[in-house]
Amino acid sequence: MPDGDFRDMMRFTPGPDTSRQFRDALSNFATGVTVVTCRGPEGPVGITANSFASLSLDPPLVLWSPARASKRFAAFEAADNYAIHVLSSSQMDVCRGFARNGTDFSAFDWETSAENVPLLNGCLARFECLRHAVHDGGDHAIIVGRVTNAAVGPGEPLIFSGGSYGGFSIGD
To answer: Domains in the chain, ordered, with CATH?
Structure first.
């Protein structure tokens, strides 16, 4: 096998004593990077997230999962409308900005939707959503949104894997 002998894989039972091992194992799955935005009680709010996934084409549903421990969790759990922005490989500044501070939009090109949701411009894709359901997901919530508007632009995706960010290129 080119990447090693899978019979020699380290096995463990996920739990409190192996949380680091579990997180490291999960980091082997490469994900795209998004910023989710909504209107909070005190103004626009954003958060960097890699827990985005498509759910259904008919009806058009997507999901994402914010951490309950986040200071921004309450705003997203309560939001009826929000937007998910898929970042391009040239938007590392947007990724870092919303990972650190969820209320400072001053460095970014954005506008407000008809539903009063902050919309970031220049993203690879954007999905404006109406809350469809919120489910318990342990230390996270699973927020399902019905996509009401979508937009797509040119570029390559920003990828997160193994604790690092990078781009994606198709090999020979």
So the answer is: 33-161 (2.30.110.10)
